[in-house]
Amino acid sequence: MLVFLAITISMGHSIRDELTDFWSRADNYHTTFYGNAMSWDRYLHILRFLHFTDKKKVPDMKEENSCRLWKIRNLFDILKDKFSKFYNPSENLDLNEVVKFKGRVIFRQYIPKKRKRFGVKIYKLCDKTGYTYDMAVYV
């Protein structure tokens, strides 16, 4: 699982069009790290069956106070606590807003003046080094 998490975090630092491009042998995409760490089939198998919440406890979405992030809320809260616990930010802080997202979620935003027009609004308080100190998702 640690290798899976390391690969997933590393994917955030390089831009590729599709997930399969990280394991591609093409000259313009080839990175030996991904293939040496884990095979594509194993990574996809873990990704397909990775869940953070019991599906039997689905909240009623018709209620006014229902959480739209219910599938990842536990993981999100743990990450927020750990990010702020183990690091003290410097004076220079930055607030990042939109994360590009093309999937289907009800809280996806359309902002016509941004370069990333479709995305999820995640308010992230970041240090000048890029470390996320605190975050909140606009749902």
What is the number of independent domains? 2
Mean pLDDT across every amino acid position: 82
Q: Write down the secondary-structure element order.
A: HHHHEEEE
What's the total helix number? Answer: 4
Q: What is the CA-based Rg, rounded? A: 17 Å
The share of residues in extended strands comes to 15-25%
Overall structural class, as computed from helix and strand content, comes to alpha+beta
Q: First CA to last CA: what distance? A: 29 Å
Q: Which of globular, elongated, flat, extended, rod-shaped describes the shape?
A: globular
- Residue share in helix: 25-40%
The biggest beta sheet reads: 4 strands, antiparallel
Low-confidence regions: none
Describe the structure in your own words.
The chain starts with a helix and ends with a strand. The protein folds into two domains: 2-49, no CATH class; 56-137, no CATH class. The chain has four helices and four strands. The model has no long low-confidence stretch (mean pLDDT 82). With 139 residues, it is of the alpha+beta class. It is 28% helix and 19% strand. It is globular, with a radius of gyration of 17 Å. Strands 1, 2, 3 and 4 form a four-stranded antiparallel sheet that branches. Strand 3 (118-127) and strand 4 form a beta hairpin.
Properties at a glance:
139 residues; alpha+beta; 2 domains; 4 helices
Question: What is the fold's blueprint, element by element?
Answer:
Layout: H1 2-11, H2 32-37, H3 40-49, H4 73-85, E1 93-100, E2 109-110, E3 118-127, E4 132-137
Antiparallel strand pairs: 1-3, 2-3, 3-4
